[in-house]
Amino acid sequence: MKKKLTIAFLAACVCLQIHAQMKWNQAYQTYIDQYKDLAIEEMLKYGIPASITLAQGVFESGAGKSDLAVRGNNHFGIKCHDWTGAAMYHDDDARGECFRVYNNAKESYTDHSKFLANNLRYRRLFSLKRTDYRGWAQGLKECGYATNPQYASKLIQLIELYRLHEYDYARSYDKFMAKRTEDSPLSKALGLHPIYLYNQNYYIYAREGDTFKDIGKEIGISYRSIAKYNERNHKDVLHKGEIVYLKKKQKKALKEFKNHPHIVQPGESMYLIAQKYGIRLSSLYKMNKLPEDYEIKVGDQLRVR
């Protein structure tokens, strides 16, 4: 009995130690925000849990920063077995192994789904519920997807830390975000702007010299629309750090600001405040019963919801 208790205690300690090693990472969250809709799209087509796809993408690609992901758009470390497309060579279990190369991230995600769905080795996983992320994680390890002995536990940690299992219940996805992963030549040359989520909207941070036309080409939507969403002239040149929303802004800030007015700081304008909270400039004036020619002063208190 004592021996069993000792084994159980040691197992629990090991489990706690593994979980303690994983901390929340903004780069991981940014990756998840960018690819979650694509993972959901693939789940609805093939039945692979979106949580599993995202966790594998994060882990295998280092949140999109690995050499395979950057140079080959390979987010899942899939090698060249039975592959007739483009390839690159990379040290893995052995030196100079052959890995698949894709034109964009969407191709990588789609091939990952087909790789699992069409491979007899993984067939038994498809008898599991798509909400059984633990079973899928253990199954991938047992079926030989990776040689890392901690592979299943790493996927489970990522899923639970970033609450990826919530996406396994999704019945729809944002087609705009799923399509956005089809990189254009321009976005490949410049590097994609990371997309963030706030107040039911998507946004990016502008780089110095960006134009709405550049952003429109990268994102794949009308640059005039983007300028309109941000209440700007479509010919404006943007500066580093400016927030650029990709959909029409909300009329009110998040609920957490209901009883917390914004106190105007030096250098702020009504427009910058509206951008900060992801709300329309006209709504900000209306909520505070201010004329649109009102000049705010440091210390003013403004309702944002």
Detail the topology: elements first, then pairings.
Blueprint: H1 2-21, H2 26-46, H3 50-61, H4 67-72, E1 87-90, E2 97-100, H5 105-117, H6 133-142, H7 151-161, H8 175-179, H9 185-190, E3 196-198, E4 201-205, H10 212-219, H11 223-229, E5 243-245, E6 262-263, H12 270-277, H13 281-287, E7 301-302
Antiparallel strand pairs: 1-2, 3-4, 4-5, 6-7
Helix pairs in contact: 2-3, 2-5, 3-7, 6-7, 10-11
Describe the structure in your own words.
- β1 (87-90) and β2 form a beta hairpin.
- α2 (26-46) packs across α3 (50-61), α2 packs across α5 and α10 (212-219) crosses α11.
- This protein folds into 3 domains: 12-71 and 109-175, Lysozyme (Orthogonal Bundle); 184-245, Roll (Membrane-bound Lytic Murein Transglycosylase D, Chain A), CATH 3.10.350.10; 255-302, Membrane-bound Lytic Murein Transglycosylase D, Chain A (Roll), CATH 3.10.350.
- The strands form 3 sheets. A 3-stranded antiparallel beta sheet has the order 3-4-5.
- It is mainly alpha-helical and 305 residues long.
- The protein has 13 helices and 7 strands.
What is this structure, in a nutshell?
This protein has 305 residues and is mainly alpha-helical. Helices cover 44% and strands 8% of the residues.
Largest sheet: 3 strands, antiparallel
Average pLDDT reading: 89
Q: Which shape, going by the Cα principal axes?
A: elongated
- Order of strands across the widest beta sheet? 3-4-5
CATH topology of the largest domain: Lysozyme
Q: Enumerate the spans where pLDDT stays under 50 for 5 or more consecutive residues.
A: 4-20, 183-190
* Overall SS class: mainly alpha
Count of individual domains: 3
